[in-house]
Amino acid sequence: MRSSLEALVVENLSKQFGGLRALDGVSFRVEAGERFAIIGPNGAGKTTLFQLLSGMLPPSSGRIFAFGKDITKLSAHRRAALGIGRTFQITNLFLNLTVLDNVLLALEASGLTRFNLLRPIYSYKDFLTRAENILNQWGIWDRRNFPVRSLSYGEQRQLEIILTLSQNRSLLLLDEPTCGLSPEEAKSFVSMIRAFSREFTILLIDHDMDVIFDIAEKVIVLHFGRVLAFGYPEEVKGNPQVQEIYMGRSNESS
Amino acid sequence: MKNPKLPIAIVIILAFLSTLPLFLPPYYTGLFSLMIIFGIFAMSLDILQGYTGLPSLGHAAFFGTSAYMVGILNVKIFKGCNFGVELITGILSAAVVASILGLIVLRSKEVYLLMILMASSMMLWGIAFKWRSLTGGDDGLPGISRPDLRPIHWDLGSTTHFYYFVLLFFIVAAVLMYLVVHSSFGHTLLGIRESETRMRSLGYNIWLQKYIAFIVSAVFAGLAGILIAYYNGFVSPAELHLVTSAEVLIMVILGGAGTLFGPAIGAGIIILIKNFVSGYTEHWMIILGAIYIFTVMFAPQGVYRLFRQFLQK
Predict the structure, then answer these.
(1) Which residue of B182, B204, B212 is in closest CB contact with A121?
(2) What is the pTM of this model?
(3) Residue A101 and residue B185: Cβ atoms within 8 Å?
(4) Complex ipTM
(5) pLDDT tens sequence across A57-83
(6) C-alpha span between B277 and B284 (Å, rounded)
(7) Any CB–CB contact under 8 A between B96 and chain A?
(8) Contacts A–B by Cβ distance under 8 A
(9) Of B260, B202, B263, B213, nearest to A101 (Cα)?
(10) Å between B193 CA and nearest CA of chain A
(11) Yes or no, beta carbons of A114 and B180 under 8 Å apart
(12) Domain extent listing, chain A
């Protein structure tokens, strides 16, 4: 029996791309409400892991459980419906649509309105109010009618997070959320995540060590597709292997 | 409506369309009927091409299937027109073809989808061409009679009356398609066009949304097919042919993919040019190719957007 206290259980997960083993027998557990970080140098398999967890790619072997349920074979949208939301490392937005339209698409994803062929999208007062609240909270309500294409990179990164947060998914996979944010923006992002209710479980990839150690309670280090180290941030920080492969290079601040 | 001049433009166009038989000779009224029928057809493709981002070189499959359904019922079974049955069966046949085809093809994308749809529609063309006992082979099915609305004083034998009949369907279809692309469902199609991976991770079963769009689009293409069968009075394999699919695709691109009304304008322009050049040359495909190249070079966004920019000045 698996405890429902575990938001995510990954067992022996592997992914083979032709001759490349991008992930090699990765296992870990994330408890509900935990802030969990995955670090590792470029090419370590972090984003591949997220692709497998969110259902964008099928694993070569291994199993994934979310909230006690085997989701290994579930499609991406079924996983989202179970409560898994993700952001993308490379900004993935609806570039030719407005900011408001982007948020409306996020809000519309659950429920049956998405099958309504005749009712105009802007007639849903409930969606519009929620979109207004979220965009006000992030201070970009006045930009709502701009196409996303015309926003600055930093604003697009914010929207990347807004879309995912607006859905109230209980397990959030954040793929380098602070990448491209200014130091101040990154700082306010960190304080926002820290203020998050424990109803949300957060799995985070980031290159910014300050962000990781400010947010994460547990850290795993991936290296060549394997788990190199696992533990509390301080333990991982002190691990000589980790220092050798990762910390030594963190000054480059990629 | 962001542009206040746009409703005025729509009123002017509607006024023009509804009074045009009064000042145009019957020949041109007939030509406008054809333009309007292809207008419905092109708008239906735009739901896929412009709004969902699914290109198709096989849209004639739905147009031709319903035209043949009307032809077979009209000529072989009723030996006359049973409009209600033909309308419903024609639209249903297009929807059924789309719902079967959609199960097979909608996993592919972009140019692969374009090609697989072309191949599928050419298979239907092959059936229509070979199954002589049912379809009349390349002779087609002549002698389709138009609906008999004389009890309500509407003689569809008259070019003018038939024009208003077609215009009525055009307006109903245009309003319905306008509602669809601006609906909450239509909004998800835009999301799919922009980013499928983001839609999936937001929780959309994008296959299902595409499948519904595919069937809805086929229903309107089927309506155009029904009207073309009555307009011509016969159906032939040409209605299912790649050339028809290519023409409607170019109508959408010329008019402006993703503008809904643009493709109807594109249809009008192409039909007009086709009618004009057919008096001088048999090589219509060369002209069509030239129009395509011209569009891509000088109006890649389509004439509708050029027109709108002009209005905003």
Answers:
(1) B182
(2) 0.90
(3) no
(4) 0.87
(5) 999 999 999 998 999 999 999 999 999
(6) 7
(7) no
(8) 95
(9) B202
(10) 8
(11) no
(12) 1-83+170-254, 92-168
